[in-house]
Design goal:
With about 300 residues, the chain is an alpha/beta fold. It has one domain: Rossmann fold (3-Layer(aba) Sandwich). It has eight helices and twelve strands. The protein has helices spanning about 1-15, 45-50, 65-75, 115-130, 185-200, 230-240, 250-260, 285-305; strands at about 35, 40, 55-60, 100, 105-110, 135-145, 155-160, 165-170, 175-180, 205-210, 245-250, 265-275. The strands form three sheets. It has a five-stranded mixed β-barrel with strand order 6-11-10-7-12, surrounded by four helices. It has a two-stranded antiparallel ribbon with strand order 1-2. Strands 8-9 form a two-stranded antiparallel ribbon. It is globular, with a radius of gyration of 19 Å. This is Uridine phosphorylase. Pfam families: PNP_UDP_1 (PF01048). One of its GO terms (cellular component) is cytosol. One of its GO terms (molecular function) is uridine phosphorylase activity.
Length: about 300
């Protein structure tokens, strides 16, 4: 609890300059900082020159989706040249992919809490070394819906764990550390307004459950293991719905916790690929799923365009 109080005080002190801050005094004393999983280093790359103008960071699971997103945003902002290529800034590694156009950075994070957590540590340090200020970070992804039509978009109010608690728990040196998973309420409202302006697809604000697994962790009946009945599953999902949960994915809790601890405005915008009350398998045709996956991109692309006064 004392650690969290210290973090909160530290955050207030740093809000005034709007720079990205770290909760680690060790980094400032390092001669060189190697962001190993990005294949970038402060010793070999000029971070302020490469990334100093970044104001929006969008993250999502798949490298190809984040490449598609940067192309889309480039076109929307009028920054793309005909036949322009967007090189992968993390070309020396296949862990993550990173693309940039103007003030927008697009980064893949893989699947699950450990994968996005590693990426976020290095991303936050990248923004710190680049001396970025007033940065907004948005996760655009896919999820399973609860009680929503497939294709609906959920803007997350709170990320919750599998017991519906709005917290992220991690073991640090063998001790339990719990961080809050609050997201920026004003940003939620701004995104909701953008969706209303677009009026292209159903969008709701709801809580998002973040699990450690796709199968048993989300109450699926079709994994390699299943130790419960359909009745058990339905009861659990209905309890989740009653707790305000509208979708399930595997990254939002650590994303919300880390961004909030570092003073970054953050949001989670996920499309639902199916209604989990109706089934477990994703059976929609490829072209339907492909269009669904573009919905968070269109919403966040419009938000960025509007924020930059180009809408």
């Amino acid at each position: 609890a004392t650690a969290l109080a210290a973090e909160a005080e530290d955050l207030e002190n740093h809000r005034s300059d709007h720079l990205v801050r770290l909760l680690n005094p060790n980094v400032a004393t390092m001669k060189e900082d190697v962001l190993y999983h990005f294949n970038l280093s402060t010793g070999t790359h000029d971070f302020p020159a490469m990334f100093g103008d970044v104001k929006f960071v969008c993250v999502g699971g798949s490298p190809s989706r984040m490449n598609a997103f940067i192309r889309y945003v480039g076109a929307q902002l009028g920054l793309d040249q005909p036949g322009a290529e967007y090189p992968n800034i993390c070309a020396g590694t296949d862990r993550y992919a990173m693309y940039k156009v103007g003030p927008v950075l697009s980064v893949s994070h893989g699947m699950g809490i450990p994968s996005i957590s590693i990426m976020l540590h290095e991303l936050i340090k990248l923004l710190y070394h680049a001396r970025c200020s007033d940065v907004t970070v948005i996760r655009i992804g896919t999820s399973g819906g609860i009680g929503l039509e497939p294709g609906s978009v959920v803007i997350t109010r709170q990320a919750v764990d599998a017991c519906f608690k709005p917290e992220f728990e991690q073991m640090v040196l063998g001790k339990r550390v719990v961080r809050s998973t609050d997201l920026d309420e004003q940003l939620v409202q701004e995104l909701m307004q953008c969706s209303a302006d677009l009026s292209e697809f159903a969008t709701v604000v709801g809580n998002t459950m973040c699990t450690l697994d796709f199968y048993e962790g989300q109450g699926r009946l079709d994994g390699a293991f299943c130790s419960y009945t359909d009745k058990d599953k339905q009861a659990y999902l209905r309890a989740a719905y009653a707790a305000g949960i509208r979708n399930i994915e595997m990254e939002s809790s650590v994303f919300a916790a880390m961004c909030s601890a570092c003073g970054l405005r953050a949001a989670v915008v996920c499309v639902t690929l199916l209604d989990r009350l109706e089934g477990d398998q994703i059976t929609s045709p490829h072209e339907v799923l492909s269009e669904y996956q573009q919905r968070p991109q269109r919403l966040v692309g419009y938000f960025i365009k509007r924020s930059l006064g180009k809408a």
